[in-house]
Amino acid sequence: MPEGKFCNKRPVNTEEDLKALLGDKGGNQYYEEMNSLEVDTDALWSTIEKTCQSRIRTWLEICAHCGMCADSCFLYRVNNRDPKQVPAYKIQSTLGEMVKRKGKVDNAFMQHCMEVAWSQCTCCNRCGMYCPHGIDMGVMFSYLRGLMYSQGFVPWELKIGSGMHRVYSAQMDVTTEDWVETCEWMEEETAEEWPGLTIPVDKVGADIMYTLNAREPKHYPEDLAEAAILFHLAGEDWTVPSEGWEQTSLAMFAGDWAACKMQVDKVYAAMERLKPKRMVGTECGHAHRATVIEGPYWAGREDGLPPVKCMHYVEWVAEALREGKIKIDPAKKIKEPCTLQDSCNYVRNHGLANFTREIMSYIAEDYREMTPNREHNYCCGGGGGFNGIGKYRAERNKALQTKRDQILATGATLVVAPCHNCWDAIRDLEEEYEIGIKWSFLKPLLIKMAIVPDHLKTADDE
């Protein structure tokens, strides 16, 4: 049968494809056509045979069904400990069945798998920490999402997001021209208050190449200006690339592995072209994972590393504070009780918890840990693409309850969230449950409390 206008198995590769999807408000026609989508069972099994390698096959075989992973999953906990929400059950009843049946599955099964893969798992990987056999359902769900994408069973918003990466090399429709103009605009807007501030584009050999989340230039370019101010305060030699500046990967959430490679190849090409000493990425968890942790493997780099040393923003901030590049005015430290959201993608999956605590020791007088915390902290409730999928909004809002209860238990009124997904989830949490909290990235907090060196002061400052 014809694949249809909206729901089809081919990737989104053109602006026309995107316009068709975007014109289908809410994805109603997209999901309607999905109901008639035929599963190419031969292609599905062929893909599994080629790509489901020993690690995943072993994990599926050795699961003891002991249930040790159950309480590790915040979705199991907020859903009245429903046995069908146990991570082991979720993966065995989807990917496990798909492998057992050698790909001979139907539309109804694939739609069930889509619901489980995108509304019952955020790929936070917390379950893997508690499995006695080291089985990581998060990794397996990421693999399952790739199989689902290949057959056209992927949420509408993530089909669009993946397509944006293919068409614009960014998760949003920000062209190279748009991006460079935004840099010029923010430099002009900021330079009056900060004389000498520049946002250098395509400077070869800088100490730092800065990469962003496309939502920043698209929706709040002041984030770019704030990054520029902090680099200016710290006296850093930095640049942004005109191409390869977008660090995020909604393609990773969608399971579009080919687009993941396209995206990270652009960033790595910018590194090779500009030859910075290191890359610093913005306050985004999945961007760091996509570029620094998973990216080298998508790009086929044998050493498993990006072309240059890469740092998440919290690493750079901790360094700048430690080395005195940025100094904090004690009178301007955060006075109210505050807590910190640990991003799964750079804390649990890359061990950066100490950097965030080091930062808080400089900027907060009444810092309170969530329980549990660090690598044991729970997902914000909206990771893995969950935040952006309208079809599963009710499930996502329910999932926010775990983070709500953690925050309330601290008594904090401010949540520092150096991650876009976490920031969004906590914003939505307050909107949904009205618990009376504020939330913030690091950049605006640091600018408010940083001491301006004499040589950077304006006449007004003096």
List keywords for this structure.
globular; 3-stranded parallel sheet; mainly alpha; 51% helix; 462 residues
Question: How does this model look, in words?
Answer:
This protein has 462 residues and is mainly α. 51% of the residues lie in helices and 5% in strands. It has 24 helices and seven strands. Helix 6 packs antiparallel against helix 7 (107-119) and helix 6 packs across helix 9. It is globular. It starts with 14 loop residues before the first helix and ends in a 13-residue tail after the last helix. The mean pLDDT is 94.
| Order of neighbouring strands in the sheet with most strands | 2-1-3-4
Average pLDDT rating: 94
Q: Shape from CA axes? A: globular
Q: Please report the total strand number as a whole number.
A: 7
Low-confidence runs (pLDDT<50, min 5 residues)? none
Structural class: mainly alpha
Helix content: 40-55%
Strand content: under 5%
Note the quaternary state here.
single chain
Distance between termini?
Answer: 73 Å
Task: Tell me the major beta sheet.
Answer: 4 strands, parallel
